[in-house]
Amino acid sequence: MGYSGDFVKSDLCKTVAENQIAQGAQVLFQVAGGCGLGTLTAAAQHKIWGIGVDKDQYNDANRVLTSGVKHVDLGVFNVIKATKDDRFNGDHDLQFTLANEGMGLGKINPAVPKALIDKMNAIKQKIISGQIKVPTTIK
Q: 92 vs 16, 63, 79, 124, CA distance in Å?
């Protein structure tokens, strides 16, 4: 794990990524928005895999396995609809999850074997059903 301290400057994330690659990382999951494009660039340059975040970053760099996509558009739509229907209660945080389709995946690289995609989809269903509990805090 590494921190750039920035969400914009891609050179900072590239440096963090290169340090992780030097330590033997084979897959890098960037979670720093635009800064993370440096992570994906470093992954491609070192011929390892990268995973994008926020939006589908499949076409933003070579060697992207997939992206963790936030469906912010759906969240905004649902809030507007609830407000229009006089059902919006703004006294709590809204959770956007796999179950309510607030979170998903981008395009999956064809290099990923179908068996792994099937396994991932089975785990996804277990998360949605509550059989697998995803931690919400770091211990």
A: 35, 39, 13, 26
